[in-house]
Write a structure and sequence with these properties.
Number of helices: 15
Largest sheet: 8 strands, parallel, barrel
Shape: globular
Number of strands: 13
Structural class: alpha/beta
Helix content: 25-40%
Radius of gyration: 22 Å
């Protein structure tokens, strides 16, 4: 393609997830006359979507989660808890990965370790854990907290939580289960380890009550781009979900993350950067633009304003919808490489770059909550994906269809074949686990002889 680097690693291929979200990622998708709003409590509908993604050989389906009601009443609430839903999806699919969000702020590690180990076993090794710390105040109050702890406090607990969960999954070495009928020994007790963790936030004795999951551990995924979030991701994540509006911002983030990972002695190829992309797809540019404008005509401004307050920490209710948004409203939001509230920084950059009215800003955010919303033909969408992939901005994407299932089908039927033809994406699955799809190694137990040798 003209203008694109030709020097990419030919062994490197795109990673593509389908990001599940009720009727679609546009906040007004449920109002579309063809929406499936009546089916969002129907597990068969989610199974159907996952099979559509699997037929196109996508890497995974991903489900976000905020354990709190949508207070505004202008959008459907999520009907399912993610791990439960994806366990049902596992039964209806064979190979596609299953990524569930779970917060280290509200779970206890032993409980969550059991849930993910069960999902990994039920699915034959397809589980991924999107590790979040949750800054939603309404969610915190549902779990007995008066307010959300500070960034540093949340990430301090998150690191200890991940360390404990890792040790629990690893507490049975891979060959600990022997099931020797003649001797009566089900497990080699010398290879089942108490973890005896006593820390600032957590106290867990262990060992785990089940043998090691098929993948060893679920794939560790992180979805925060603040200073604390990037540091946490560099140490722990195997994939990073992030939001960027421009190629330049995505390249800066990508370079910074890979550098931090390398400094910590980890392999940068084993930490995938996956920005969100929400594509409005039409057979012509005019058709795609018309589709985009129609969805925006369904927006309820009250909902958009409340979302802006939650995401950006800014209220614009005192302004008329057709007034320009003042950049100073966002204060010192920071840059893509230096910020404590990453989504606020994304929104501030939109305001600085485009100087939108309040109405225009709400429309920009309605399709992807700060993720990159694009509209064009299948070829134009494929070109954007290729550009970011080949120019150091992404290892793949979280695909966020504005309307389910129609715009997922448009992506899988019209965009994916172009990427396959270019040699950027698979035509068939090479393996059956999420680690195999992502090209990630199965980790040794921290209690294994191999791991001890590496540490010493």
């Amino acid at each position: 393609m003209k203008g694109l680097s030709l020097s990419r690693n030919r062994n490197r291929t795109l990673k593509l997830n389908a990001f599940l979200h009720d009727t679609g990622h546009h906040e007004a998708s449920w109002r579309h006359p063809d929406s499936s709003v009546d089916r969002i409590g129907d597990i068969a509908w989610y199974q159907q979507i996952a099979r559509t993604a699997e037929a196109a050989k996508l890497d995974a389906v991903f489900l976000a989660d905020i354990p709190a009601a949508t207070a505004s009443g202008h959008r459907p609430s999520t009907e399912f808890e993610p791990i439960t839903l994806l366990s049902a999806v596992a039964a209806a699919t064979e190979k596609i990965g299953l990524i569930a969000t779970a917060s280290t702020s509200f779970y206890e590690p032993y409980n969550l370790a059991r849930l993910f180990a069960s999902l990994d076993r039920i699915s034959g090794g397809r589980a991924g854990w999107n590790i979040v710390t949750t800054f939603n105040t309404d969610a915190a109050r549902n779990f007995g907290l008066h307010d959300v702890p500070s960034n540093s406090e949340r990430y301090g607990r998150a690191q200890e939580f991940v360390d404990v969960a890792t040790k629990l999954w690893d507490s049975w070495e891979d060959d600990a289960r022997i099931a020797d009928r003649s001797s009566g020994a089900f497990a080699d007790a010398s290879k089942v380890h108490a973890i005896d963790h006593v820390g600032r936030h957590l106290q867990v004795t262990g060992p785990f009550n089940a043998s090691r999951p098929p993948q060893g551990r679920p794939v560790y995924i992180q979805a925060g781009s603040s200073n604390d979030g990037r540091a946490f991701a560099a140490r722990n994540a195997e994939a990073i979900f992030t939001a960027h509006q421009t190629l330049a911002d995505a390249q800066a983030f990508y370079t910074d993350i890979k550098s931090q990972v390398r400094t910590l002695g980890r392999n940068p190829d084993h930490v995938l950067v996956l920005p969100g992309i929400s594509p409005f797809i039409g057979d012509t540019p005019a058709e795609a633009e018309e589709l985009y404008e129609y969805f925006n005509s369904l927006i309820v401004p009250e909902y958009g304003l409340s979302q802006l307050e939650k995401m950006g920490g800014v209220s614009l209710r005192h302004l008329d919808l057709d007034e320009r948004v003042p950049l100073e409203a966002f204060g010192a939001a920071g840059s893509v490489l230096d910020n404590q509230r990453s989504r606020q920084q994304v929104i501030a950059n939109i305001v600085e770059r485009e100087q939108p009215t309040v109405r225009e800003l709400l429309q920009r955010l309605a399709g992807g909550r700060g993720h990159n919303v694009v509209h064009g033909t299948p070829l134009q969408i494929a070109d954007i994906i290729t550009d970011w992939f080949e120019n150091g901005a992404a290892d793949g994407f979280n695909v966020m269809p504005p309307l389910y299932p129609q715009l997922l089908e448009a992506f899988t039927e019209k965009v994916v074949p172009i990427l396959v033809e270019r040699g950027l994406f698979r035509g068939e699955y090479d393996g059956s686990t999420l680690r195999e799809h992502y090209g990630l190694p199965r980790p040794d137990s921290v209690f294994s002889d191999t791991a001890r040798t590496q540490i010493s």
